[in-house]
Amino acid sequence: MRNKDEEKVKLILEAALNMVARVGLSGLKMSDLAKEAGVATGTIYLYFEDKEQLIREVYGHLVRHASSDLSEGVANNDPLKISINKMTRNYLNDSIKNPAHSAFLEQYFRSPYVEKEEKIRLEETKTLQPLYALVKEGQRQGLIKEADTDWLVMLICGLLNEVARQVIYTRKPLIETEWELTFGVLWDGIKG
């Protein structure tokens, strides 16, 4: 059995990600993907059993290789609200900077592929762990609602994903007053 060429796997995953942004999950055809990636169709099947496995691997690839660190610029001594502001802005900026990622995730979460394997669920939780930790700390301090942490993080990410989609669609940069309004709505939604 041949060893996987990790560079080729990454090339295929990135090509699939970009194709899904253009043609959607249902429009993704393995033969078209092979052309996009510059490999033979059979090569794709060496690495991925079928389209379903490929899509799950693209999702896992996004989760494992998040392009920015949520905690960038967040200091240990920042007040909780400031930390959440910085972290959510990092999340939003990353979503705007990587529209193909946002397009894929939006479609993935509305598809039958969303049935997650436990391994992917653990990776996903690890990626968002800094945000979960801040929400839990805010609950401990009485600053954030006593609600299911998953629901609160979903509320935060959902709002940010919609704002990113709007910024990408209009091709207008998000100005500071719009961010302040966005964060105000976000904060009002989670505060205790």
Could you characterize the architecture of this molecule?
This protein is an all-alpha fold and 192 residues long. Helix content is 72%, strand content 0%. It is built from 10 helices and no strands. It has helices at 6-27, 30-37, 41-47, 51-64, 80-97, 99-109, 118-127, 129-140, 149-170, 176-190. The longest helix is centred in the first third of the chain and has 22 residues, at 6-27.
Please work out how many helical segments DSSP would assign: 10
Q: Average pLDDT, to the nearest integer?
A: 88
Q: Uncertain segments of ≥5 residues (pLDDT<50)?
A: none
Outline the biggest β-sheet: none
The backbone outline, from C-alpha atoms, is: elongated
Assembly type: single chain
What is the strand content?
Answer: under 5%
Radius of gyration: 18 Å
Order of helices and strands: HHHHHHHHHH
Structure summary, number of beta strands: 0
Summarize the amount of helix as a percent range. over 70%
Straight-line distance between termini? 56 Å
Structural class: mainly alpha
